[in-house]
Amino acid sequence: MKKEDNKLNLYFNDNKICEVKWIERPQYYDKKTTNGKDMVKMGQIGGDDCLFFCFQNYCANFKDNKQCKFCNLVSTSKTYNSVIRKKDVQDIGEVAAAAWSEGSVNHVNITGGCYISGKEVEVVSQIISSIKEHTGFEKVPGVILPAPAKGNNIQRYYDTGIQSLGYAMEVWDERTYKAVCPGKSATTSHDEFVESIEKAVEIFGRGHVYVAMVMGLETKETFLEGIRVLSSLGANVIPFVWTPNPGSKLEGHRAPSAEWYVETILEAAEIVYEYQVPWGTENHCYLCDGNSLLHDALRLKGIE
Ligand code: SF4
Prior knowledge:
By secondary structure, this protein is an alpha/beta fold. It has 10 helices and 10 strands. It binds iron/sulfur cluster (SF4).
């Protein structure tokens, strides 16, 4: 990166790639809720227009040392201590209203770590009601990414008034999934994920269910097989690039080469394109944060 004429430019060796600009700091980051909480610690803008809430930074899998091997939720939370770990629903509604009134956001992404207690849908329902009450939305544009929603809970999530439902499936190959995600796979099997995603598409509609995968932990062959099956079910797939995060069990390991990522994502984009699942921009788009290469690969094919 070089500073030239008061601009920041990104270089690859001597070749200039593009100018880099910071996103504007939202005004609500300096405001407080009526409960006196710093709004910036409740919900943050991810990328350009996505309002992100993690309503509880906790995952039961860490308790038994069965966390997913790429995950550093607890270590990040301890290191930075920059967010309020358990958020009040009233505060969340107020932050949503403040962010929307500035015109800076278009959709929400709500996640709760992982409770695994069945209570989560009730908490989500209260949060969505609070957002509706404070913003005036009848249907909240955005996605909820809870512990894997199954059975009747899928309809209950739909009834909360959120537009899309997310599944963090992480890894497609069943044996790799069990090895990488020992806690999660003990409570939600590969087959349960697939059945639940199929049911969720029936309820929420094609393009209103999104499946988060971690790309780079399994072979290209099984990863692409997963992309094909999930696309054929009518789900959007968001493969995040695996980086061996500090504080995760895989800290210090090496991810595949950049070439592997590029080759694999271009093939994935061909598969996604073939199935023509409507791209729900309330799920995730190229302007959101997170490191999914699929958006760029699809943009090369004219899909934004
Ligand atoms: S389920 Fe896995 S990825 Fe999700 S918060 Fe828990 S350990 Fe992390």
